[in-house]
Amino acid sequence: MVLNECAARLGISLRQTEDQLTRDMLQATASFINCTGGVNGDNPTNITRFDVDTVVRALLNNNAYTILDNIEGEDKFGTAPVRDAYFAMCSTNLTGNLDQVQGFIQKNQYPSPMNALRSEWGSIGNLRFLISSIGSVTPNASALNANVYNIFVTGMEGYACIEQDGFSATFIYRPPIYDGPLALNASVGYKFAEVPRITNDLWVLNLRSTLI
Amino acid sequence: MSNSTILRGHFVSAGQDVFIPLRSGYSAVKTRNWSIYSAQTAANGINYYWQLGMAQNDAMIELFNGAGTAITADTAANLGVGGFTFTDTSIQTVGVPIVFTQVTNAAPPLVLTANTAGLIANQTVVRLYFQNGVAPYAQQLAGIDFTVGAVVNNVSFSLLNMPVIVATGAPVAGTYSIISGAGVPYWYPSRRVISNITNAAQAVVSTTVDHAYQVGQQVRFSNVNQVRPGSLAYGMFQINNLTGNIVATTAGTFTVDIDTTGFGAFAFPVTANYPFTPAVVVPVGEDTATALAQPAPGVNILSGATINTAEIGVILAAGITSPAGSNGDIIYWEASTDFNL
After folding, report:
1. ipTM higher than 0.85?
2. A32 vs B130: CB contact, 8 Å cut-off?
3. Which residues contact A168 (CB under 8 A, 6 or more apart)?
4. Which of B100, B105, B154, B311 has the fewest CB within 10 Å, making it most exposed?
5. What's the confidence (pLDDT) of residue B341?
6. Does B186 contact A143 at a Cβ distance shorter than 8 Å?
């Protein structure tokens, strides 16, 4: 029971660490576009439909493939069809700002909500927004000293996580009998070695924004 | 059963703070200054110790008294000197905002301020901020990181790699903050904001922060076509999305094999362009032929690979009563990590 709990927690820790490393790699190395369509007087500004269209157009011009297929419209009250889309990965703090963007479709307004991903917040144009509490934030990086939220917009196969030879994620368990002369304690842990890497810099863009 | 793993080493002090990477962290760390043991220099420290539970930048210190005749005990906090500080280089911090009164149109631009504490010429990276709702003088520099050039103590500092800016309107005050880790993300090679590109058979590119790129790396130019959709203010839109191989470098510039003689002149955005997207250079790979063609000692042909450069460890402060000692001192160190079996 305890071991199962430990394994579950370690699994979350492993994948969150992986996410954080990938997030920081994208923040450091991906090209970016500042939101400029907003009205908060900052640089970058808050996100608007103008900025979403700008980043989508840039990816389309770079021949990036969308990742998700469209969701066809259905005859259901309050729903709207969803375009084929690139992923836009961002912080949970952006949810309120996303709600205010023109053309935003909340995921419960999808014709078939079962097609929405667990971490998804909604879609705008050809972007579907995935949110995370560990989404990328650059502190005090705007012109007016506000936090800058990095929205990583990626097409298909824009980046990859490459496992180093022989070091794919490993769960380690040493039972008490092997862990000490009196067999009092066990050890559990994980280790992994991998490198996240942008595979095509034209297919990953960081849309930087501040909050309204 | 409790155990400790112990790492040991030594170095010759250069009179500056020393970073010792300790991959597994540490529960306790101590240093001994062999040179002071030997010379028995008055008022100099010989033994330094820090253990979990103590404050950052503190240390227990044994030092010779003022006459050099006996050893006394004290702490770094009591003496007002630096001790041991745990460091994780993956965490970049932003310093407190410090007021400046103006950015000038000099070449390079000068930031006028009565407080230059902590600025080190050609090394420190600062980020500039402006106030909302005031005249947008020099506001095109706001939110961008810069390597600091010449520092005139408590008068001004220059923006090392910036050309003359075109600032309009009345000068306004703002603030700057020091960015830790020289403003370098822990993933290498990272993108950089472009401050200038020359018109030449092989273009010379300046970056606002020293880039650390190497000859042979391949880079792409991005956002140079427009400051924002519909506004072509950068001038050299022809270079946008082109890739080039780096054939020469200095700390703040690099030369690429792209002929820009027929291109429009690069122009950094003016205040009227605010808000905008800065032009950036993005490392995309390696041209091994260029790298291999370099004369001895050559360059690393894998330097374009994405590398996690973050480290955790301890910073030893320098000084006659601090763990990294004074210039020329021989320092022996020992760090231990506790664990249970």
Report:
1. yes
2. no
3. A192, A194
4. B154
5. 55
6. no
Contact predicate B21/B11, CB 8 Å: no
* pLDDT tens for each residue of B87-125: 888 888 899 999 999 888 888 999 999 999 999 999 999
> What percent of chain A clears pLDDT 90, i.e. is strictly above it?
74
Residue contacts between A and B (CB atoms, under 8 Å) = 115
Q: What is the pTM of this model?
A: 0.89
Q: Which of A17, A21, A31 to mutate to test the interface with B (most CBs of B within 10 A)?
A: A31
The answer to whether the beta carbons of residues B158 and B112 sit under 8 Å apart is no
Phi, psi of B226 (to 5 degrees): -160, 150
Phi, psi of B33 (to 5 degrees): -95, 100
What does the pLDDT look like over A35-86, one tens digit per residue? 999 999 999 999 999 999 999 999 999 999 999 999 999 999 999 999 999 9
- Chain B residues whose beta carbon lies within 8 Å of the beta carbon of residue A197: 306
Q: Who contacts B90 (Cβ-Cβ below 8 Å, separation ≥6)?
A: A24, B186, B310
Comparing alpha-carbon positions, the chain B residue that sits nearest to A29 is B190
Query: Does A197 contact B at CB distance below 8 Å?
Result: yes
Chain B interface includes A145 (CB < 8 A): yes
Q: Is A141 on the interface with B (CB under 8 A)?
A: yes
pLDDT at residue A115 in the model: 86
Contact B275 A201 (CB under 8 A): no
